[in-house]
Amino acid sequence: MNILQVKGIHKIYGEKESQVHALRDVSFSVKQGEFIAIVGTSGSGKSTLLNLIGGLDTPTKGQIIIRGHDIAALKPKELTIFRRRKIGFVFQNYSLMPVLNVYDNVALPVTFDRGKHVDHEYIRELLKELGIWEKRKRYPNELSGGQQQRVALARALANKPAVILADEPTGNLDSRTTVEVMGLLKESSRRYHQTILMVTHNEALAQACDRIIRIEDGQIWERPRGTVVCKEGEAQPAAGVGSTGPSGVSVTASAASGLGPSAGTAKPMAGVMETGRDGERG
Question: Domains in the chain: how many in total?
Answer without folding.
Answer: 1
